[in-house]
Design brief:
Mean pLDDT: 80
Structural class: alpha+beta
Distance between the termini: 23 Å
Low-confidence stretches: none
Number of helices: 3
Strand order of the largest sheet: 1-3-2
Strand content: 15-25%
Largest sheet: 3 strands, antiparallel
Shape: globular
Helix content: 10-25%
């Protein structure tokens, strides 16, 4: 579990999506339950700021994210690591959407896709890790 981090998350739709991006954004703006990271003892420290953008790559989605709201800027600067904010992105391999990430690019195989809950069997999922091009912002 990570603490004291600021994360930007990108979600893209697929043809069989259960909810639209607009429905997901509305639910994140006004959640029914308290949001947490991994365990209920790790509640989120800042409110979520979902935005929907239409872009040609995942890296472009991160570059198009809105500026950090002024009221959060002071808190983010206080949390900023000495070496600056990371630009590393880990993502599932996505068909039809180029990542737009720059080297180093590596792959991780995770065995965390439930195949059979009764027997606790899991299938493999391939993740890629790369670096975002420098975008400026709160670095």
């Amino acid at each position: 579990y990570r603490q004291g981090v600021v994360c930007t998350v990108a979600i893209w739709p697929n043809l069989n999506a259960r909810w639209t991006l607009e429905e997901l954004a509305a639910s994140l703006r006004t959640p029914v339950f308290s949001l947490f990271a991994g365990r209920r003892s790790n509640p989120l420290g800042l409110p979520l700021n979902p935005e929907i953008v239409e872009v040609e790559s995942m890296a472009a989605a991160f570059a198009a994210r809105p500026p950090v709201p002024e009221k959060m800027l002071a808190e983010l600067q206080r949390l900023r690591p000495r070496a600056g904010w990371g630009r590393e992105v880990a993502h599932d391999v996505c068909e039809g959407l180029p990542s737009g990430l720059v080297a180093p690019l590596r792959r991780h195989v995770r065995r965390d896709v439930p195949a059979n809950r009764t027997g606790w069997l899991f299938e493999e999922r391939v993740m890629e890790v790369g670096m975002l091009p420098s975008t400026g912002g709160v670095e």
